[in-house]
């Protein structure tokens, strides 16, 4: 039997959840609520029931899952109301804006005995899954440096994402995905240090790009970087291990791995530079390295909803857990603190 879904916020991402529900094997859409009449009308024109108020949606007993796809600053209030009304809640990311608010949301889910999670849908991204496989398999040794970048060239969107009061900025927007992925990749250690710097090329109020260096207790250095003014993009992932390197150039690209077979090599042909010859920087060839591609993992983002429904039925533990949500939020707070102090901050997260 399918679970009945109500969507709050019928904009870009609300539309994604609606399309998902239309195709889903585990949920069916009962209806939507949006604060804007034009969005409610747009839903009705598509044959989707639009509730006139949030209260009306929450009062509908057949709805057992509420997905919140409104601007970031409104998630908390809607989530707590929905949990209090006896609904299981999926919040879009970032789940909210700070750890104190998140704690209130977690407390409400416990108080009302309902499942509450955040839509970290980028845990199903292939580029990330290939990086995680490299970390876990140790096939190029222990990874000691991971760089995860998202680059665009269109600036920060001109909507609520550019406004501080709505929880705008790229650290909240893309950063939350990249930080969540980092914690999934380096799953065997805590973060010991955070150093974050913001850019304000197209927006003075919120960051329109950032670099956040995390150093884990086990020594792994992990960079997350978002740019919205990069007319030449860096690779999606650049990875260094003790016995090789790997690169994922783009979202859909393969993971190319160069593994070191022999560390030492006699008779290295030096490379010519303007100022002279260098053997140290001479490229390797197939005598001492092998190049291969990691198989693309199978991945279906709709497994998020499948797992959420199983968690409601008590058959599976929810994939995106409260403790994980809290760690990501703590790291975002540490990022803001580091920007404010303009220095690295020590943490144990
Ligand atoms: N997981 C992802 O991949 C992903 C992708 C995009 C956006 N998001 C998240 O989804 C959320 C929505 O983003 P979006 O791009 O759809 O924004 P959007 O501006 O396109 O849509 C937001 C909608 O919410 C409505 N709204 C605003 N306040 C409301 C309220 N109090 N009650 C009901 N409706 C309200 C607006 O009228 C609008 O239609 C954000 O939290 C964003 O970070 C997640």
Describe this entry's structure for a reader.
The chain has 349 residues and is of the alpha/beta class. The protein folds into 2 domains: 3-119, NAD(P)-binding Rossmann-like Domain (Rossmann fold, 3-Layer(aba) Sandwich); 123-300 and 330-346, Dihydrodipicolinate Reductase, domain 2 (2-Layer Sandwich), CATH 3.30.360. The chain is built from 9 helices and 16 strands. It has helices at residues 12-23, 37-45, 54-59, 75-84, 99-112, 126-137, 170-185, 303-312, 322-341, and strands at residues 3-8, 27-33, 65-68, 88-91, 116-118, 143-151, 191-199, 209-216, 221-227, 237-241, 244-248, 255-260, 271-273, 276-278, 289-294, 345-346. The strands form 3 sheets. A 9-stranded mixed β-sheet has the order 15-12-11-10-6-9-8-7-16. Strands 2-1-3-4-5 form a 5-stranded parallel β-sheet, sandwiched between helices. Helix 7 (170-185) packs across helix 9 (322-341). The longest helix is centred in the C-terminal third of the chain and has 20 residues, at 322-341. The relative contact order is 0.14. The model has no long low-confidence stretch (mean pLDDT 97). The structure holds nicotinamide-adenine-dinucleotide.
